[in-house]
């Protein structure tokens, strides 16, 4: 756990899209931090935005960030296949860590990385940003405030506006580990419960190339929770109307649900009926503020020496659920989570 600090000095590994999002928030909107340096093998491609943010220390070797004597914490925003190794190296260097999800696609590598971080005594937060979304956070608060009573059911809808290329699908780990991982985490977050068993159904209904790559593009998963509640997640790689992200919880005292964020709330009604805006199209539009709030939470934990809201085990448990979902799909049966641990 971090010692109490007033100013946090940060190094960022990875200067791609998500690295830019985090660096920009840290420089422009998070109080009491300094982005000291960045590293990326292709750091020259980020020259324009690094100049814009005034970040002058730029390296192609991540070790320069990991071993930098003026860096207190590291943001790991590189490609998925590098996360676990950088996490281990950062922990051994005594750096606190914010790591984008997933930590890795291999459970054993994830477990090893978490063990190293634990032994090193560093603070680790995993980047499940949707927990910090204003809509989903409000649903969580409604549950905590007992506005819905005892929790009976959770429904999560997650549909992308367009499918990824087949080449990406081949190395993604599959729809459950790649896409549904956020939704599996959302069930754990909202329910405050672990999952006992999973049943999955899926099909290739969007793009035959995804099937040829060995994956599915449409799925429904049912989860039986240890607290007695039931959750259902439906996902699709393509919703023609935009980025569809909704949650509903139902309990003994009522229901709470969210709708999609829209570019504007105007609704026009005429002789042909009513019309309103489509949902926001891209995940960075939809979840832009959540990336800021999760960084504020990480920095707050470091400054106050407290535990961050999304810890290492939160990066591991959804992987077991994704593995169980895949096993259920393949074997056409309910799978106990204990079978994949």
Automatic annotation (TrEMBL):
One GO MF term attached to the UniProt entry: nucleotide binding
Gene3D superfamilies named in the record: Dihydrodipicolinate Reductase, domain 2 (3.30.360.10), NAD(P)-binding Rossmann-like Domain (3.40.50.720)
Domain called GFO/IDH/MocA-like oxidoreductase: residue spans: 136-256
Keywords: Oxidoreductase
Domain Gfo/Idh/MocA-like oxidoreductase N-terminal: 8-128
Similarity section: Belongs to the Gfo/Idh/MocA family.
UniProt name for this protein: Inositol 2-dehydrogenase
Organism of this sequence: Alkalispirochaeta sphaeroplastigenens
